[in-house]
Amino acid sequence: MKIGNKIHCLVYIVLFVLIGYLFFIRSKNKEVAIVNAQTVLENYQGFREAQDLYELKTQEMSKTFDKQKSTYESKSNELKILTEKLSEKEFKIREKELEILKAKTFQLGKSIENKAIEQEEILLQGVYNKVNGFIERYAKNNGIDLISGVTTSGNVLYASEAIDITDKIIQGLNKEYVEGIDN
Q: What are phi and psi of 87, to 5 degrees?
């Protein structure tokens, strides 16, 4: 083998080792952070306002149900009082009407329950989309390679406070919310 070829081989080997070393060093310097998901939700203004709106809607639905239930109870009490004064035929007619009203009241209750569940799912999905979108933008803008969510179920057993960015996420989310930024 000629000396020129040996030098080329040596240069290539040194180059490959150097490139490998640089990739190794770069891969070791990945930025990692954690976010307490529950704390973010509890302190995100958008979530709090969405919760308030949800409660108002469920209260309205509850009033509708309570009115229907009250009507049923009133008719039921009325039938008990009038039992002796009604003919058997009239009693049966009113009893049948009362059963229909009872079924409608039950159906209304089920319908309201289903609507409440649906509204809650819509509310939560919207909030989760906004929070996740913000966290992704935050990570990209701050050179963070991985943000792990901490929950009460304990998927992260320990993390240094130095990598906890929960407060920064809450501040940024609330700033975007107040400014009306919708990403």
A: -70, 165
